[in-house]
Specification:
Strand content: 15-25%
Largest sheet: 5 strands, mixed
CATH class of the largest domain: Alpha Beta
Number of domains: 2
CATH architecture of the largest domain: 2-Layer Sandwich
Helix content: 40-55%
Radius of gyration: 21 Å
Number of strands: 12
CATH superfamily of the largest domain: ATPase, nucleotide binding domain
Distance between the termini: 18 Å
Strand order of the largest sheet: 3-2-1-4-7
Order of helices and strands: EEEHHEEEHEHEEEHHHHHEHHEH
Shape: globular
Number of helices: 12
Amino acid sequence: MSKYILGVDLGGTSVKMAVVSPDGEIMKKWSIGTNIINDGEAIVPDIIDSIRDHLELFQMDINDFYGIGMGSPGVVDADNKTVIGAYNLNWTKLQRIGEQMKDAFNIPFYIDNDANVAALGEQWKGAGNGASNVVMMTLGTGIGGGVINEGKIVRGQGGGGEIGHLQITTDMDVQCTCGKTDCLEILASGKGIINLARYFSDRYEGNSELKRQIDDGENVGAEDIFNEAQNNDFFAGEIVDQWAKFMALACSHIANVVNPKYIILGGGVSAAGQYLIDLINPYFKQYVFPQIFESTSLRLADIGNDAGVIGAARLVEEAFS
């Protein structure tokens, strides 16, 4: 009987888990809530219990698996299988996840940063089409990044792929959570485009439904801004255009340094679809080295929420291939 892989995608709200075949097909999947109380001390035990419960439900044994792969927020030491600084999990102290998983299951365990793992999933079975050189940008509340070079995650000294903290302007002085100003994340993520709209709202004097919503204190989201722009709201169009310039500038820096086959855009903001690529591409062509524009293209992610568990499984599959 052929063996499988367990993929785990650990997030601040939920933990997604899946039984994955060695060729990347999801056979079964499920999720549990992430319990972050008491410094998140129950998170890993909950994952262990859930795996045990579901293996029993599926009438499977842990020996049916090559190993377990996991993607986690925070600073991940892939060699020592530890995590620290995952603040959305309340993990402020070092978490020795590898030790806990070994004690529970005693099969190979691999872990990496969640953005890296999502990039690996898209590279393997998603928009990357198996290309060996791919960069993924995850546009959500913040901006995560993963760089895949020759099929391997680029970790650097542990901080590889921090695309969200590329500095893209020096004159707006919008404070980023990292302590710097004008990072890509604070200006172009889902939260970032809202920051842009609020920043420029006071400077715009024309008629605009978007400006009215902001001035009235309504709860405006990224989706609202893109929708109003497509409805020919001039102010919204200006905001979206500025956003596209920032994204294109960041993509040009990435492309000029790495020259990947694809730069893949994923996360909640990417739900706006091909419209985003069409906005960014003209500026990307303007900013990037001309020959690189011919060989690096922008694409939308296409396996969505499954990228994390598939990428986690890929960590194991690579070790056994």
